[in-house]
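User: Predict the complex with thiamine diphosphate.
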Amino acid sequence: MTNNTNSQTKLALYRRMQIIRLTEEELARCHQRGLVLGACHTYVGEEAIAPSVCAHLGPDDPVFSTHRGHGHALAKGAHPRELMAELFGRETGLSRGRGGSMHLFSPEIGMMGTSGIVGPCILQACGGGYSSKLMQTGRVAVAFFGDGASNNGAFHEGLNMAAIWKLPVLFICENNQFATEIPFAYASGNPSVGNRGSAYGIPGFELDGNDALTIHRVAGEAVARARAGDGPTLIECKTYRTRAHAEGMGDFGYRTREDVDAWKLRCPIARLRQQLIADGSATEVELDAIDAEVKSLVEESRRFAEGSAWPSANDATRHVYCEQPSPPRSPIRNVIPAPSSETREITYTQATHEALSEEMAKNPRIFVMGEGIGVRGGNFKTTAGLFDIYGPVRLCDTPICERGFVGLACGAAMTGTRPVIDFMFADFVMDSVGEIVNQIAKMQYMSSGRLKMPVLLRGCIGIGHSAATHHSGSYYAMYGQVPGLRVVVPSNPFDAKGLLKRALNCDDPVLFLEHRELLTVKGTVPTEEYEIEFGKASVVRTGRDVTVVALARMVQQTLSVCEELERDGISVEVVDPRTVLPLDVETILKSVAKTGRLLIVDEPPASCGFAGEIAAQVAAHGFNDLDAPIYRLNGAFAPTPYSPPLEGAVVPSPQAIAKTIRELMEE
Amino acid sequence: MAVEIRVPRLGWSMEEGTFLGWLKQEGEAVKSGDVLYELEGEKATQEIESLDVGVLRIPANAPVPGSVVAVGALLGYLVSDGEAIPDTSPTRERGEADTNPTRERGRALHETTNPESRASNPESVTLNPERGGAPALADASGYMDRVIASPRARRVATELGVDWTRLKGSGRNGRVRERDVRAATATDGTRSTFSPRRRVIADRMLASQRQTASVTLTTRADATQLVRLREQFKASKTPTIVPSYADIIAKLAVTVLRQYPHMASRWDGDRLIEPTMTDDLAIGIAVDTDGGLLVPVIPQVSRLSVRQVAERSRELIEKARAGKLSTAEMQGGVFTITNLGAYGIDAFTPIINVPETAILGLGAIRREPVVIERDQIVIRDLITLSLTFDHRVTDGAPAARFLQTIRAAIEDAAVWLLN
Ligand SMILES: Cc1ncc(C[n+]2csc(CCOP(=O)(O)OP(=O)(O)O)c2C)c(N)n1
Ligand SMILES: [Mg+2]
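Assistant: Here is the predicted structure with thiamine diphosphate placed in the model:
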């Protein structure tokens, strides 16, 4: 670096910091005027950090940030206009009005989002690093987060994953000494964040967070290490926010005015200004000119934001799902074929294995993560043999940190790869529900459709064989509540293969739930490759008198009693929606229009569930077709017990299904 | 340029606060970071710092300490030295937040929130299938009296023209199901011969038989004058409508009913209402139509001429046959006339048109030899009259006297009509 470039870099740094300061102060004013509609956490006092780190990044290097993210967005190159417009709720805002202060997206310049949840950005940065490693792009991912986040599980899981896989990630902890009003000194047993790096086997630094030039130097070295494949770095920047936690909040219940005033004197911008003048990089006049230019830039930005249009209410539900989905890679085939020379009888597990290996062969962006899915080939043989072909980066065994690797998957999908998370049991996913519901599901929406979220989350569900209560939950009704997810629950090998192939080509996040009692069930599967569309129910058996809607194992249980009922003159039609989200209500309505009777057989408990949803849909849209009340047959409202007599009592049996159908015929 | 000092929002949902007072004096110089004033928000009192630099100017009509102020309300200005207060009125309380469409939209969304979901009580959820909300048999009193039908049965009933309220349901708690509706139609799929209209007639007939103590009296009357009267109408040069026997007798009956008002009484629930002298008496005329018996009612018969009665009844009969009679046109009668004479019937036992008290049946008019004074035999037109009356209302003798008077009126029709 010549002296010349050096001083240019410093001036750019100064300007960036000043943009942040003046924008934040203007936002504070606008908050008082009521122009900023929601929360507003400013970066005032901490301006040295983000510009000094981001100075080493290109637009392709992804940055993941927190609730205090204005400075990160501006440092990454976002225009103050778009930032202000977003906080004012306008169409021209960074997230087109869908996000606000805590959901700022500008993926075009590598600003991958701020988050209203403390912690996930750390894991998402690991995902950004993983994409870089898988695709060998040389990109470096950065997470900015507070001292509060450093005590969150995401920090520990993230740093550990980054360490073991040597991910190109910078973890920048902005230790402003408080998490809201809780002092870091109280919340952490170890007074240093930086020295925790050694606990994970990675370099850690503890810096003066108000010293831009030092941060700039250390971050530059860390970025170079990361690009060279030498793994992650943790950098703690000790700093102080000189405004309240959020605009409008009181500030002196937990700290004194004197403390704040003292820190104001340590202003990072004033400090850099002095350094620049002292080392001859700039004159007062030059810096004053920058100040004036930035001042008018910020004023112009506010006027732009204030004058910007509101988004249209008609668009409120756009971007929940990808609007330009990728086309299928195999022909669509929704109906199960009759056995022929062009089909085979294979098991459910074989079917999903075929789907995964066929798609992995076609798409180098697909990678699988899970516990024991590498050399071992998966607890349920879901990945058997694939490790030998694709190696440890595409078949990645994980530590036992479900939240961590699901959060990582989110960041990976945001940065262009296609993670498959293999959970073994869907019960284990519970540890990562926040990442699924708050991050993965909402990401496309929050970014107004500029991010795609091709994440596949798969795992076993279902009661049977004394699995007991931590290995038997189904949970699909819960996920059915979440806008942005696709929820797939196949009942046979044909559906399982076609739907998994669709899931692996879908740009939306998919939960793929496989009933463990079905894994060894055989079924007819075409030799040719195919995909099954989401949201197309399958009429598994046609009948006249009563419609039974069921998913997964309950489809098989229902089918097992249909012949017996037929002999007694009761003709049963069985409809398998196959996907809970999207739900094919139309096929169900058509069937009920024919039969006039509806029973929903559903393994999990009834309350607020899948059966209730279908019942409500049919009551609303098929009322005049109903010749009897709608029945639900659900599992008992209890955790799953272990002992067979108890276990049998909480799940709908074939006998119970037959009895219920007979009762329904009496209505 | 003057900087406005406005009430900030302290906390997410604050809409107003209490302005507690200035911590700087009017005219005092303010630095950025100085505390300016105290404001009480939702949770606590705060000293508000200035972000800007200037001289504090408090307009005359600015909020006084202690007043409640809306978020966004103007409190004062920071001006540069010598600068005047801008011309804005501080009473313009709120800034742009007022025009914020998101608040309104939030409200609209609440209103359209789907109310259909009713949370189920988890404790009641067991392996027993849930029945669709029908009350248990135990508290089915009242419920059982009402005919219930599935939505589908109702729809099919409408399609097939079946009155499901009359069906016996084969479903649980007697619910009428689709199959019951279909069974009520002929097996070849054609319509039931027992139409909804027939069902109404059947009901009324049965109700009459059940509710009244009916007795039928018969007598014969000399209808020669009636026949002649009609001949005259027929032969008239002025084109006119020819009244039917029923029309003429309706007119006569009204006159007779004035003398026997209890024969024109109507039941209203438990009360029997007898018409007063000033009431207009309306007479029902039974009409045979394709769909079955209908009884249109001619109102205000005493005010109408025979010709007008004829016109009115002709009109109502046509409507009845065309199926266009309104319910109102079948209500309010006090007495009914039914005529089977055209079918050669003489005496019969008409059924009282409840809630009326009596009904008069007209038989065929036959030319017959009649023995008059001095054992002379002459040819006369004779009609058989059948009067059914409700013995609860009146007794045999008064009813007989009424019939006798009707007979007299028929036999002397010209005089009675002109009187
Ligand atoms: C998971 C989660 N818990 C709690 C909150 C509420 N919350 C928002 S900011 C914050 C403090 C965060 O402190 P720190 O990480 O130090 O960041 P700072 O605000 O100091 O920049 C809390 C608790 C949240 N947003 N997410
Ligand atoms: Mg903090």
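Chain A has three domains: 3-309, 343-526, 539-666.
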